[in-house]
Amino acid sequence: MESLFQSINALFRFIQPISDGVWNFPVQLNWYAQIPVLGQLSFAVLLLTGSGVWFTLRTAGVQWLSARRAFAIMRRQRRTTTGISATASFLLGLAMRVGPGNIVGVTGAIAVGGPGALFWMWVAAAFGMATAFVESVLAQLFKERKQDEFVGGMPYYGQRLLGNRRWVGVTLAGAFIVYALFNVPSQTFNIFTALGMLADTATGASSGRQSPLYYGIAVGLVLSCAWLILGGIRRVTHWTNRLVPGMASVFCGLSLLILVVNLPLLPDFFRLVFGGAFAPDALFGGSIGIALAEGVRRGLMSNEAGQGTITMAAAVADNDHPCEQGFVQAMGVFFDTLVICTLTGFIVVLAHLWTDSASSAEWAAASAARLDLYVASVQALTPDLLDRALVILVSACYALFAFTTLLGMISFAEISANLISRSPRFILGIRVLGSLVFVPFGALTVLAGLELGNLWAITDLTNILMVYMNIPLLLLGAPLVYKALAHYRATDGGKFLSERIGVQTAHWVASEQTHLPDTEETSPR
User: Nearest to residue 129, comparing CAs of 329, 295, 299, 317?
Assistant: First the structure.
């Protein structure tokens, strides 16, 4: 078995340099790297940040002015015969956004770029909210009905925006399915890491990967994923509606407790973050560009604005107006980065483990895949009596972060697959492939004692390829979003038909507006 896994890892050894090359282009070119600040920003970072700034200008800062409406939409209670509620869609999207990257991603950004990287993560999120708004509105505009569900997302609006060519939609759907499924093994690894640490801390004894504990985790993980995924989107959302608020509340509560215990250090935190953003320590290269590049890259990959991944969650919601889900999903970026990542950053920055110049490079490399570095920061800031309890709770949250991300990946792959074929057998095949092939594969690699770095590198490569596919589509479809937003503002969210903005869609036509009346009207209108 081990030789089989090693062969698979060797098969993908060519991925890592390709992934690094695509992510860093054109930073590796000498003439470009010599440009101050700009020379340390890759095209991917510039594309994501630039599009966010552009969408913010064109929408007059919609993401900053619509928070009240977003919360009112999520509070609204309604009965619907098709799709899921705006809140369920928000939580399904948050299940993807709030993942291990909120812990190890922030840790890695600070390790490489210093505390100033956290400031640039805030900046990336502030503009990334506009990108999330645009892609979510497009997902709503071009969603389609499938019996008592909606399906949609990037492959659907990509097909329509590029001449309604079916091969375009199939290609985009296939690319997203590959992206989603190849992210599953890494999330499986994260679950084992967290639960193993939880068990070791609780018992005081270390368990090897061949121990009954790890086999028990493997069996439980495969069975729970199969039961949830094979039950379809509604079963998944039923549980993400419960898991996401719970895990986010516990994690935020723990982080706030640590903040309160260390409240006198709060001024130092802001001094380090803002000082590092514009005058980084020589340890990190003495350049603003390093902090900026790391902060933007990690921030946008954590909140996923611009990747197109959250568009599937946005599409399956039942709304009165396509802009409503744009408001809601923009708040997902806010919560992911400006709340959860900030709380993580507070702990990592003030623990000062990143100041150990002798080990900073090694620490930065390890933090991309391991939880123990963040836990060490937690322990450095808490009294001894709290150490064990906090480690157990943090590990549990981390495991749930990875678990809900895993569920989201497979569910979104299923939504994309509907564009290729709506045959029940085909959709069942995608569910089986995700839950009974890729999840067990990830579990088996852990049990075999392997960390398949080349295979995990595929996730980095597919992340950026999704960005390169999605951002041009957003720029192409943005005029429709501006028109829909103008209609929302002019009518205060009144009845919307797609023909009013010059496009014919599958859902936003008079014959499709069939949802039942609200049972408790708290709409912003």
Answer: 329
Q: Give residue 48's pLDDT.
A: 85
Residue found under tokens 């509606």? 241
Q: State how far the alpha carbon of 125 is from the alpha carbons of 68, 91, 213, 297, 472, in Å.
A: 18, 18, 39, 11, 19
Whether residue 427 lies inside any domain: the answer is no
> Quick check: 288 and 278 in contact, CB under 8 A?
yes
**Which secondary structure element, helix H or strand E, spans residue 518, and what is its range?**
strand 518-520
Which residue has 């067990």 as its token pair? 440
Cα 90 from Cα 179, distance rounded (Å): 21
* Domain membership flag for residue 248: no
Residue 421, domain member (yes or no): no
SS3 assignment, position 356: coil
Q: How many CA atoms lie within 13 A of 66 on its CB side?
A: 30
Predicted TM-score (pTM) of this structure:
0.85
Q: Give residue 63's pLDDT.
A: 85
Comparing CA positions, the residue from 467, 490, 514, 502 lying closest to residue 25 is 467
Q: Strand runs (DSSP E) across 280-426, as ranges?
A: none
Query: What φ, ψ does residue 246 adopt, rounded to 5°?
Result: -65, -50
- Assess whether the previous peptide bond of 383 is cis (omega < 30° from 0): no
The count of domains in the chain is 1
- Domain containing residue 361: 2-76+85-186+264-383+453-520
Closest C-alpha among 196, 185, 194 to residue 222: 185
Q: Are 317 and 84 in contact (CB under 8 A)?
A: yes
Any domain includes 155: yes
What are the beta bridge partners of residue 518?
Answer: 78
Q: What band does 471 get if pLDDT is binned at 50, 70 and 90? A: very high
- Sequence-ordered list of residues with C-beta below 8 angstroms from that of 226, at least 6 positions apart, any chain: 435, 436, 439
Q: What share of the chain is helix, strand, coil (3-state, %, to 5)?
A: 75, 0, 20
94-150 pLDDT, tens digit per residue, is: 776 766 667 777 777 777 777 888 888 888 888 989 999 999 999 999 998 887 788
Given phi > 0 = left and psi -120 to 50 = alpha, else beta, which region is 136?
A: alpha
Q: Are 16 and 464 in contact (CB under 8 A)?
A: no
The span from the CA of 280 to the CA of 320, in Å, is 47
What pLDDT score does 451 carry?
A: 62
Closest CA to 84 of 303, 328, 418, 429: 328
Question: Quick one: tokens of 492?
Answer: 């205060």
Q: Which one-letter DSSP state was computed for residue 434?
A: I
pLDDT digits (tens, 9 = 90+) for 187-235: 888 888 888 888 887 877 777 777 888 889 899 999 999 999 988 888 8
- Tokens 């560009």 correspond to what residue? 289
Q: What is the pLDDT of residues 376-393, one digit of tens each?
A: 777 778 776 566 777 788
Cβ-proximal residues to 110 (8 Å cutoff; 6+ apart), any chain = 117, 118, 345, 348, 349, 354
The number of beta carbons lying within 10 Å of the beta carbon of residue 278 is 11
Q: Which ranges in 204-310 belong to alpha helices (H)? A: 212-230, 233-261, 266-278, 288-303
